[in-house]
Amino acid sequence: MGVMHDWSPLRDLISKSDEIIILSHVRPDGDAVGSCLGLALLIRTLGRKVRIELDGGCPGPLRFLKPQELIFTIGAEGVSDKAGIVIVDTGTWNQLGPVSNILKTPGRKIVVIDHHRTQDDLGGARILDVDAEAASVLVAGFYKEMGVTIDADAATALFVGLANDTGWFRHPNCKPSTFELAGDLVQSGADPTWIHEKLFSGESVARQRVKGLILSTMTFHSNGRVGLFKLLQSDIRKFGVTPEDGLGGMVDLPRQVLGVQVALALYEQPDGSTRASLRSDGTIDVGAICAGHGGGGHKPAAGCTLKANPDQAEIILLPELVASLDEQPRLAK
């Protein structure tokens, strides 16, 4: 049996608000977009006005999800003080970026739906399940709570979210209920073959060349247990990478190398800071490491932003990863 949640704050928000605005984290991924869109379709089915506002709008690789007319770029339209706010797939200020300004209207009605351990007080009710594989799992649960049938568009969106946060059903967060939900979504109209084709075929030349750069320059540390790469703004300009190309999934490249237990990707940002993305095989908790630097996530997947260039970020993070790996065998005994 799944976890029982108190959905009353979300039901009340939907019923008492003139409009619902759904927000998520910066650099929205498949689960962010999929869970937001799935929720928006449910709210629309309930007869309420709803729209999604995302950092940069819908990422290019996810624009096959429908209906795109529900998705806007943050700030493209004003937000009424009477609008209810639902934040999906994050619960921290540092992950909200420009979205945070929308939340600071006095008396704003807010509900957070999330599955990450790291949480801030965003000023509203929270529906949290850290054992959920994806935020899309929670949204699917809300459909069941409301007795609403998941249609083909919603099933496709929620399947994308579930597949995204489980690494296409290969990460250790998968459990029997993961595959049960995936099966239900397929029954409702999601087509895994078509979705995979849309997500992973037809990559741009720029993205392919960035992969080549990463593969040729990644380094290995701690007897090959840590794989690391850095991507600079000059690299992004050189290859002509656009927001539509995206850099999602690059951090998985070092983890594909035999013996690598932890991957560390260091992306230089336009302001000179570094966004760090970490992936683990589960032997160490990269979420805890990132939380120590103002970020967060899950045990096998997490991220943070450091006010340092990539070389400095490596000096900060690499010793922590190595120390955690060195400690792990003793903890396992």
Question: What's this, in brief?
Answer:
This protein is of the alpha/beta class and 333 residues long. It has helices spanning 8-16, 30-45, 135-146, 152-165, 176-187, 192-200, 205-217, 233-239, 252-255, 286-291, 310-332; strands at 20-23, 50-54, 71-73, 84-88, 110-114, 125-128, 219-221, 226-231, 262-268, 274-280, 296-297, 301-306. The chain has two domains: 8-199, inorganic pyrophosphatase (n-terminal core), CATH 3.90.1640.10; 206-332, Diaminopimelate Epimerase, Chain A, domain 1.
Description:
The structure is a single chain. This protein has 333 residues and is of the alpha/beta class. It has two domains: 8-199, inorganic pyrophosphatase (n-terminal core), CATH 3.90.1640.10; 206-332, Diaminopimelate Epimerase, Chain A, domain 1 (Roll). It is 38% helix and 17% strand. It contains eleven helices and twelve strands. It has helices at 8-16, 30-45, 135-146, 152-165, 176-187, 192-200, 205-217, 233-239, 252-255, 286-291, 310-332; strands spanning 20-23, 50-54, 71-73, 84-88, 110-114, 125-128, 219-221, 226-231, 262-268, 274-280, 296-297, 301-306. It has a six-stranded parallel sheet with strand order 3-2-1-4-5-6. A six-stranded mixed sheet has the order 7-8-9-10-12-11, with helices on both faces. Helix 2 runs parallel beside helix 3. The model has no long low-confidence stretch (mean pLDDT 91).
